[in-house]
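Quick start: load a record and inspect it. Here is L-aspartate oxidase:
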Amino acid sequence: MDDSTHDVLIIGGGVAGLVLALELADHRRVTLLRPSSDDQGASRWAQGGIAAVLSPADDIEAHVADTLVAGDGLCDERTVRFTVEHGPEAITWLLSLGVPFTPDPDPDAGYPYHLTREGGHGARRIIHVDDATGRAVVETLIRHVEAHPAITLRSDLTALTLIGDINGHCRGARCLDETGGLQALLAADTVLATGGASGLYRHTTSPHPASGEGMLMAAELGAELMNLEFQQFHPTCLFDPDGPPFLISEAVRGEGGLLLNAHGERFMPAIDSRAELAPRDIVARAIDAEMQRTGTDHVLLDIRHLGDAAIRHHFPTIQAHCASRGLDITRAPIPVVPAAHYSCGGVATDLTGATTVPGLHAVGEVACTGLHGANRMASNSLLECLVFARSCAADLRTPRPAATAALLPWPHGATRLPQEEIARLGAAMRQVMSARVAIVRYDEGLDEAATTLARLSDDLAPRIASAAPDVALTSLWQALRLARLTVACARARRESRGLHHNPDCPHHGDAVPRPSRIHLGDLGRE
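Running the structure step on this input writes:
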């Protein structure tokens, strides 16, 4: 194994990782691991935009209040206020880098850039780049990262595990290069920006979703995980069983899109007074229930009434993509289905991204800051990436004394597990998670999921120690254990709240709600 020493190691190159690298590189040298798969990750596919108080007609308190309502009693109000208050300056920073946000053509508009509205928001506060915000932001950030002399960008390495020492500190990461060679990257500080865990499910809104690898890497070093049971399903993913996943932005409903069942009837007004603009958990459950009631595998999202010009103006990316799949959304409604989208839980961190493991920070979807509570409000995700990456950078600008304790060994062998077997076990895991731990969960189904996942884990565990380092196998082993931790959190929450809806306990509990907290070692106490 080849060893190298680094100052700050960032694992993951979505918006959070890129922002952190740029904000830190004027103070310390940065090594950024950004595999090619990051180009298909969640950041690039974020269509709607970034929520921030930018209009004179909006205010901080309103954004805070809307976020708290969407989070269904589990948001950390201090974190919410911190995030919202730092949102406007983060947008100003992006503008200074040249992100081409869509201007507002109205000369009387109170803000020069167009602001849209999405579910859960009481005002227009979503700044965007047409309907491809994530792609525009990522491409702008990458240009600056590639030009910065203090940032070393590595696309040839995939992190497998974190390196710990005998004092419980994080000391970097073990990686596999493109030739299959092992490399140990020792670092003074390590930051996870690896994304969420929607890849634990069969249907997702991302072509290459993370499966919680970073969360489990942190847990292996003893980090605390929080709120894993709150997995958000985006209400509207394009329904096309024969094609790749494609997100239909929340902004489509924000601009007036209507949800219809198979009979062409609206169903949201009877469920919530906000109708199509209700928070995502409500809309996703309503769609799921309507599909079950009508015996169909999708519903319809209709924007034909907006007219050709408005559709092409507001949603050029969505319109073009649907056209490439044979669907003219100016003439026909869009078939949609809920799909796993965003993990509200993750590695527990403070306001600087620090985890419970010294030397390890986490930013973006891999982290659980307390902002989202039991349900993330639309477009607060990129906001969180920006605010916490900048906060983390401020915390890391002053180097800490280098750790010198002995490193923990990393046992591994040379046995190769067939890729077909890895694929089979992964498919079995995603099947049970989708069937039993998705939008609606029952006690019996959660028990079944726990048993099935334990059996899959027990089947794989004896082979891990003797297995040769392998990206797919390591990812599977991390995903399996994270899935088990997720089910344990869901079984322990004896109430329905936010994204966790269990008809066997449909109401909120009487006690003040508290976040769920779990460690990897808790699996042995089930």
